[in-house]
């Protein structure tokens, strides 16, 4: 979408509605975008608009669209010239029962610290309202951010940084500052997802000029973050983030993969929601061998098994095993101990899968399955 296609509809709609503030702000931003356009074919238009802008001596003071977030809907917070870069929503409810006790305790402490920030500031403890969430994909980093917004009854403003960079390459630092400035004035929970895409370690990147500019912006903005708002950044690759930026966050939380007890609870939550029967032995198997799966992956496997059962009217347990083994296939091929343990467990606990079926679902040869199942009962099982 070019500059004219983006801004002209906004200006016309605001003019029809009689909203002079939006007309003025969008018009000024429109002119700035035209002036910064590297391939500029609108010289005459720019000159005309500049003369018109200069008629208003107050136009140098840019109007900001800030409102009291306590009395307006999230939609009213959207800046019409930047709303395509982020979303703002009210979080109704969030379930954190699938997070580890350690993570729940860390988040609870962070929330309480924010609620008592005035008391802490009085004794010299300031800037405790920034948090960096890191961990494997699917462990629930975004869910934790939503939970914080929900508990504090604050709008969640979510920025997708990969989109920000792809759409505004070369202006990343300026746009980050603009978004943070807007968030600070509205007292929201600002979430930077995929944070590693901009907060790169300067010692590892070849494009040092652009990276250093972006990192400098982030260092400044994080250090001077609004005491009445919360800044959250989430990443799957903390090792790629500049150490100086990591140190700026008052709280850093490694979001864990669930342990075996918690995995069983997650499996039961997703598999028992449609009144389909699953044996306790199946849950024990699933929780035992899914230690590398995130809650998101467990949900996906469960949903596929339920779909196959209801659509094809086939056996639920076999569908669960099928989807699980398909998802585990790469790991089973790499890890001989895991492969041996899984196949022997299926035989010894009579989960009603033939050798041919196990081979097909796991991606192993039937000969491999036969050989493992023929091992003596005295062999160690994981």
Layout of strands and helices, then pairs:
Layout: H1 3-17, H2 20-36, H3 43-54, E1 86-89, H4 101-115, H5 117-122, E2 130-134, H6 141-152, E3 156-160, H7 161-167, H8 172-186, E4 189-193, H9 208-223, E5 230-235, H10 243-248, E6 251-254, H11 260-271, H12 280-289, H13 295-312, H14 316-334, H15 336-348, H16 355-362, H17 366-373
Parallel strand pairs: 2-5, 2-6, 3-4, 4-5
Antiparallel strand pairs: 1-3
Helix pairs in contact: 1-2, 2-3, 8-9, 11-12, 11-13, 13-14, 14-15, 16-17
3D architecture notes:
The protein has about 375 residues and is α/β, with parallel strands linked by helices. The protein is about 55% helix and about 10% strand. It contains 17 helices and 6 strands. Strands 1-3-4-5-2-6 form a 6-stranded mixed beta sheet. Strand 4 (about 190-195), helix 9 and strand 5 form a beta-alpha-beta unit. Helix 8 packs parallel to helix 9 and helix 16 (about 355-360) crosses helix 17.
